[in-house]
Amino acid sequence: MVARWPVHPRPAPLESLSSWVSRLAALYGMRVEELLDDRNLDLDGAAVPYDLDFDPPETLLVALAERTGHDLGRLWAMTLIGWSPWLFDWPFHPQVDQQQPMFDTYVRANSVLLAPGEAGDSVVAARKRWYGPWRGANWGGRVCPVCAPERGTALVWRLPLLVGCGEHGCYLEHHGKVGLARMAGEPITPRPVPEPLATMERHTHATLTTGRVELPGRSVHAGVWFRLLRSLLDEVSLALTTRHAQARATLETVWAATGLPERGGINGWRPYEHLEREVQESLLLAAATALQLAADDTITACGRLASAIQPARDQYVYDGDRPGWPDDAWREAVSRTEAAMITARTDRAVAWQLLAYLTVGCRTLARFEEQRGYLFGAGIPAGYLPSAGELGRTDLL
């Protein structure tokens, strides 16, 4: 029997494994290395990795699940490997010949603003190795001033995916700044993330917590949203001068709305993961602006995923065929019938013909008398209206 640890707090939503283990160790007054050594965990010879959030050995996660009572799947979701294939594509360390196909599949095959193929065929590893989408640029060391330190650090805060806390809508701050302020007893005023970036951050947070997000065009799965966002970041980073007229006009409109230099100030194209953090933040704002402009119908997206980010267009619906005979014929028939009713009030012969016409389809005597009563109620004298026998309708039941 494996003894369960007496104290094991529940992981916070989206918390990383390293953050949760650090909180566990702090409760016992231990360092993480001490908590995870052979005296506390039987790892069957498996080494504890330096980066717990990347791809920890399954033996470690199983041991933690047994000693804390938490579900193994929940612990997997606290690691980067646990978000494959939703957020990441496998493998994490693509070989040289795998980098370009992975980039083309994840990024360029999911066009958003631009028409399919309009982004071109850039060589992703022209300068240095590309480790895959959202990998390479480490935004670690950021915490939410509202969440910290009780709720730990979210896994995605170390990725160039969010600039703020999706739950509280404020910018993430460096953990050193927050820690020093708390030690000095000085409050930190959260800085709200402005629109339209805040809306895009809420989309990403909803995707991370529910697995889906409601966009102006339709609801999409998490795997679609992350690829849509990554493709959009690539499109706004492209050189405007090499695009076709419509694509160039679209990108010009987006960057003009941001108030920032086009392409975030970069000169030569590089994948998003290889850019400096300031440029990445500019591209995130441009992507959020593009989403807003598409939703407002200010720009028209032409990519394969365009229908997700803009409201559905009004579609022509066939009005249907007109009646086989014109309205004038109906009005003429009504007028003639009314004229016949007026004449029948003073002309016995017309009254007989009108009754014979109205009762030609009657199959019962009761139905015949209903029609006869209708004409009588319309002002035709009863003496002008013959009986069924007088009309020769001996077939009535």
Secondary structure elements and pairings:
Layout: H1 17-27, H2 32-35, H3 58-68, H4 72-76, H5 96-108, E1 142-143, E2 173-174, H6 175-183, H7 197-210, E3 212-214, E4 219-221, H8 222-236, H9 245-258, H10 277-295, H11 306-309, H12 327-344, H13 348-358, H14 365-377
Antiparallel strand pairs: 1-2, 3-4
Domain TniQ: 6-172
InterPro entries: TniQ
Pfam family, one: TniQ
Write out key terms for the chains shown.
mainly alpha; 14 helices; 41% helix; TniQ protein; TniQ
Which value, in Å, is the CA radius of gyration?
37 Å
Give the structural class: mainly alpha
Rough shape?
elongated
User: Hey, roughly how much beta strand do the residues contain?
Assistant: under 5%
Q: What is the total number of structural domains?
A: 3
Sheet with the most strands: spatial strand order: 1-2
* Global mean pLDDT: 88
From N to C, what is the helix and strand string?
A: HHHHHEEHHEEHHHHHHH
Largest sheet: 2 strands, antiparallel
From the N-terminal CA to the C-terminal CA, the straight-line distance is 92 Å
Query: What's the helical proportion of residues?
Result: 40-55%
**DSSP E strands, number:** 4
Number of separate helices: 14
List segments where confidence is low: pLDDT < 50 over at least 5 consecutive residues.
Answer: none
